[in-house]
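Lab notes, practical 5.
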Amino acid sequence: MQHILVVDDDALMLSLMAKALPDYHVTLARDGSEALHAAERHVTLDLIITDYLMPEMTGDELLGRLRERRPSLKAIVVSGHGDVLDRELPDWWRGEAHLAKPFTLAALRAEVERLIGPAGSNPPAR
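Output from the prediction step:
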């Protein structure tokens, strides 16, 4: 079963994203520090879904730190500031799968499946 780490400082968003992915093994974290600790505890991690703007550490900073140990980690960045990021087009934003809030749960599931396959399948080769 594919393992997804979902990181968002908004408890409602965390809950909604977890409910949208019932057939995957999902670990929830409320901030970057919690996410780093969770990633250390798990041998396999197929995908991270992270909010962009969070206290302490932004989503791109979190991805950078996680990829020091897991360079091929796939990611989806979610943000309520996607329009600003789309206009400014930072390199990291262009290079990551992303969804602008509000997004549909169907759009989230579709992006997850595109990156790591349907639940229960073997993740695409890294």
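Observations recorded by the TA: The beta strands are 3-7, 25-29, 47-51, 74-79, 97-100. The mean pLDDT is 89.
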